[in-house]
Every structure is written in structure tokens, then in C-alpha cells.
Write a structure and sequence with these properties.
mainly alpha, 5-stranded mixed β-sheet, two-stranded parallel sheet, 25 helices
């Protein structure tokens, strides 16, 4: 049995009157308080962490787009999120004078290192400015969650959804890095919620708003393109579940304009209307220029927003070629279908997992008792379920951040299901469950501060046992170099042998060290005569197993869970933590 589409349209009941204990005057202040706490934690973490693997490239690419209108860097990512991240750099006016050879070859990592660490503006200033934009974007999407959830499910559900959002270690971690993940996740959610408004109202405003939001998702990350099948499936489900609902009065011309022409123009504008042929691509153009006949003719055709098409080609190539991944102690070049299920189970808080199971139980109870299920629950479940199923086929197994788009839907759905029970006795039980799981979320979120990227739940053994399950951007993304610098300041004079996984420059932060090449056997360990510091990615995930001899040695200390310290000095005293 199916309930009407939107609860907000149903007649007022005693339950709604009783449950609306949160006044309109206090709702938004509480939302702002939750999001301010979230932003404060993110700002603190952003200040103490070093550059992660891809941040410098994203920031440099975005700034190069503003300065040159040339999009040769990072073609594997559309430009919108990078343009937004680099926006605060414009008043800072850092130097952008890449090496001509590196620019010609589009050497994005080499150009980024020069831009970040050899600039008149300090590296930490550049990185923090870009991270502030991601933090702002995260807060804006938190407001969107509150606004839409309140409209459909009421203020208690909206506050609880924002509460879950603000305490999620995954949101806190990836909501402050200079990446495209949070931007596309929020835009996918907003597009789907706007589409729900359109299905219900059929208005031109909601249709064109959906087109604009979808376009921004397409322009942020290529996985935003998955919106098209999701919106289609939501429409099919809507027509099937609500066959008597009035059909939209929009013509096919208006629909095509809103959902195809408008997105095309918006995405095209993100490239500053750049139009070029394949022959003008600095990386592959010179090779194709030597071709003749049809190949040369096709390569000379101007393509609007060329680098978007180029990016889709790069993405498909990488998906076919595979990507190095690590799961449960084993490395693979093509990933595994089990990667994202395991990642979700070990990287999601136990409280949130329990909430999901509890809500499944409530739904099962409704089905057993033949109680109507709201249509909106079904429609909102389509995007996260679809996204998760698609992820099982992905060969890009490199982090929970690729599951980030499903989390906002889960926060909203669990809040709506948990806090809408009509029966007084059972309603009190669900309220108690919300309070209990909410308190558990607070404890779990606080326990990992400020190392949110390395969060693993207690079922997985916590962050100290994270490498048994996952590494890469789940644990070690190069974020702890500044913490190692602080450690060396507390332990002056100790000989340091370092092998660091990351793009940041240890010398830039004043870390004096000897480069560590390998420790494959016991003899190399015994002859070290220094404090060995090795990143978890190299220690557990390196295909060459350069440091396999250290895997069974208990570390003397850890830096933020991602850098392992071993005191192999011949004349040593205990390292105080």
C-alpha cells in the first residue's frame, strides 16, 4: 500500500500538532548552530592538515582556468568545483608562471607543486583559502537538507537529518578538502529534491530549477551524469505509484529546453565557451597532426566545450584500464565488487548503521501489517540504491568519498522514517531510538577528532586497525605531514628516516630527514639507526612491498593514524608521545 506523495499536503493531525514542538523561531537558529559546529571542526582540521594527494592539482587547475581560460589541466574533472575552490585566490593574486615545458605537456602535478610551494603566497594560505570554499559549500548543502526535509517531513525530521549530517566523520573529512566530491554530492541531492517538487507541481520553475542544478552537477564531476537515469526512474516510479496524479502541462519543447539545452549551455559556459578541435589539444594534438585522411579531418572539427568530451574519454579509458586498489590486505588493479559494501560497513558510524537497520525494520513492520508506505520514501530511495548498485561495477575503488552522494539521502530517509510514527506507544520508542543513536553519533564523531579521514568504526577495530581493511583516501591521503613537523619540534635532534606518501614537501615545513628507500628484510631494519617514519599507504599498500619487514613490528608512535614511527636507534630512549 502506498501513501500520498508528500506528507506536508495531508490534513493536520493530532500527531503533527503534538510533534511540532519546535517553533519556527528556533528551527533555523538550531540548524545554524549545528552547521557552525560542523564548520568549526572542519576549519580546525583544515588548519592542521597538510595537502592531500589531489588538492594542489584541483586548486592549481581552478586558478589556471580563471587566469588563462585554458582547461588542459585535470581534464578528468569538469571545472565548476575547481573554479569555485580557486575563487578566493583571485584577490590573493598568487603567481602563476608554470614551466613552459610542463605547461605544454599539461604536467598537472609538476605545475601544482611549483604553484603551491614556490609562490610568494604561502602554501598554507593557498590551501586554506581553497578549503574554506569547500567548507562553505558543505554548510550550504546542510541548509538545503534542512529546508527540503522540513518541507516534506517536518521540523523534527529536518533537525535530525542536519544533526546526522553535521556529525558524520565522512562529511566532516571530505567536506573540507579541495575536491569535487562534496560539490557533486550536494548537487545530486538538490537536483533530485527539485525533481520531486516538479513531479508534484508540474511547474516550469521547478523543471528549470532541476535543469540548472543538474547542469551544475554535470559540471562538477562526471558521476553527476548518473542523474539522468535516476530522474527517469523516479518519474517512472511516480507515474506507476500515482497513476491518477495530474500530468505535467509542460510541452516536450519546454522539457527538452530545461533538461538538455539549459544544461548544455551551463556546462559550456563553465569552459568560458571554449571551442577547439582535437588537433588543438596540446597533449594529443601533435600526434594526430601527423595523420591523414578521415582521421585528420575528424580531429580538426571544432567541439564546443572540448575538454568535457575529452574528460569523458579519459574517464572511460581509466575505468577500462582499472586503478590500483586495496581491500582487506590484498591489492588489485581492477577493483572488486565487494569494495564499496565493505567500505560502507567499516567507514560508516555504528550508530548510523544501526539507524539504517532499525528503519528497515520499521518498513518491514509496515509491509507485514499492510500499512501504507509513503510514495516519497520510495522515490527518495531510488538514487542512493541505484548509486550503490552502480558502484559495485566500478573499477575505481579508491575511497568512501565515491559513496558520498548516498549519505545525504540516508540522513533524510532515516530521519523521516524514524520520526513520523503515528502510534503513541511506538512513537515514543522511535523518539527514544533517535535520542539514543544521536548520542552514540556524538560519541563516535568526537572520538576521532581531529583525524576524521582515518575514521573506522568500532566494528572494524577503529582507526588503528584501518589498514587491515582499507587505505588510500580512507586513511592515508598525505594529510598528516604538518603533524609530523610538530612531532619533530617536540623531539628535536632525533635522526629521522622518512618515506612519505603525499604531494606536500617535507623540506618546505622544515622537516630534516634522510630519505628512506626500503626495508624489505631484517638486516635493513637493524642497520637503520634512526627513527623511521613511513606512511601507511607505502607500508601496507605498496605493490612493491618495500616495507614488508615493518608490517609485523609494533610502531612506537603514530602520527594521525597515517604515519607510523619506529625507533631503531642503537642508543635510544623511549619516544614520548
Amino acid at each position: 500500500m502506498i501513501e500520498p506523495f508528500a506528507e506536508r499536503l495531508s490534513c493536520p493531525t493530532e500527531r503533527t500538532a503534538r510533534r511540532e514542538i519546535i517553533s519556527r523561531k528556533t528551527f533555523w537558529p538550531v540548524v545554524c548552530l549545528l552547521l557552525c559546529i560542523l564548520a568549526t571542526r572542519q576549519i580546525y582540521t583544515a588548519l592542521i592538515e597538510s595537502e592531500t594527494i589531489d588538492e594542489g592539482v584541483h586548486l592549481t587547475a581552478g586558478y589556471s582556468y580563471w587566469k588563462t581560460h585554458d582547461f588542459r589541466l585535470t581534464p578528468s574533472h569538469p571545472p565548476f568545483a575547481e573554479l569555485i575552490s580557486a575563487l578566493p585566490l583571485i584577490p590573493l593574486d598568487p603567481e602563476f608562471n608554470p614551466d613552459p615545458a610542463a605547461w605544454q605537456d599539461a604536467d598537472e602535478y609538476g605545475i601544482a607543486k611549483q604553484f603551491i610551494y614556490m609562490n610568494r603566497v604561502p602554501a598554507d594560505t593557498l590551501l586554506f583559502a581553497g578549503r574554506l570554499m569547500t567548507i562553505l559549500i558543505t554548510s550550504i548543502f546542510g541548509v538545503a537538507i534542512a529546508w527540503w526535509t522540513r518541507r516534506y517531513f517536518g521540523r523534527p525530521s529536518a533537525l535530525f537529518a542536519v544533526f546526522l549530517f553535521s556529525l558524520s566523520p565522512t562529511v566532516i573529512a571530505h567536506g573540507h578538502y579541495i575536491t569535487t566530491d562534496m560539490m557533486v554530492s550536494g548537487l545530486i541531492l538538490c537536483s533530485c529534491m527539485s525533481w520531486l517538487d516538479y513531479l508534484q507541481s508540474g511547474s516550469s520553475f521547478h523543471l528549470f530549477r532541476t535543469g540548472v542544478l543538474s547542469a551544475l552537477a554535470f559540471a562538477s564531476k562526471f558521476n553527476g551524469l548518473i542523474l539522468f537515469p535516476f530522474l527517469f526512474l523516479m518519474y517512472i516510479a511516480w507515474r506507476w505509484l500515482k497513476p491518477t496524479a495530474p500530468r505535467s502541462g509542460q510541452s516536450w519543447k519546454a522539457f527538452s529546453c530545461a533538461m538538455f539545452l539549459v544544461p548544455f549551455l551551463i556546462v559550456y559556459s563553465m569552459f568560458f565557451f571554449d571551442t577547439r578541435s582535437v588537433l588543438q589539444d596540446p597533449r594529443i594534438g601533435p600526434r594526430l597532426a601527423k595523420k591523414t585522411g578521415l582521421t585528420h579531418a575528424l580531429a580538426s572539427i571544432p567541439i564546443p566545450g572540448y575538454y568535457y568530451a575529452r574528460g569523458v574519454h579519459v574517464l572511460l579509458r581509466d575505468m577500462k584500464g582499472g586503478h590500483y586498489s586495496y581491500l582487506m590486505g590484498k591489492s588489485s588493479s581492477h577493483g572488486s565488487w565487494a569494495y564499496f559494501p565493505v567500505t560502507f560497513l567499516v567507514k560508516t558510524s555504528v550508530a548510523m548503521l544501526t539507524l539504517i537497520v532499525f528503519c528497515f525494520g520499521l518498513i518491514a513492520r509496515k509491509l507485514y501489517r499492510k500499512t501504507p508506505i509513503p510514495v516519497i520514501w520510495i522515490l527518495l530511495a531510488i538514487p542512493p540504491i541505484g548509486y550503490f548498485l552502480v558502484s559495485l561495477t566500478s573499477s575505481m575503488n579508491i575511497g568512501v568519498r565515491h559513496l558520498l552522494p548516498i549519505y545525504p539521502f540516508l540522513f533524510i530517509l532515516t530521519s523521516a522514517i524514524l520520526l513520523r510514527e503515528r502510534r503513541p506507544t511506538f512513537g515514543r520508542l522511535t523518539n527514544f531510538a533517535a535520542i539514543l543513536f544521536g548520542m552514540a553519533m556524538v560519541v563516535e564523531s568526537a572520538s576521532i577528532h581531529p583525524d576524521y579521514l582515518a575514521y573506522f568504526n568500532v566494528l572494524a577495530g577503529g582507526p588503528q586497525n584501518g589498514p587491515r581493511h582499507l587505505i588510500d583516501s580512507n586513511l592515508d591521503w598525505g594529510q598528516d605531514l604538518k603533524k609530523l613537523r610538530n612531532w619533530t619540534l617536540r623531539h628535536p635532534g632525533l635522526p629521522l628516516c622518512l618515506r612519505y606518501f603525499g604531494r606536500a614537501d617535507p623540506g618546505y615545513y622544515g622537516i630534516h630527514y634522510k630519505r628512506l628507500e626500503a626495508m624489505k628484510n631484517l638486516d635493513e631494519v637493524m642497520n637503520a639507526d634512526c627513527v623511521v617514519a613511513v606512511s601507511a599507504q607505502l607500508l601496507f599498500g605498496s605493490e612493491s612491498e618495500e616495507f614488508r619487514s615493518l608490517r609485523d613490528v609494533m610502531p612506537d608512535d603514530r602520527i594521525g593514524y597515517s604515519i607510523y614511527l619506529y625507533d631503531f636507534r642503537k642508543n635510544k630512549s623511549e619516544i614520548s608521545k
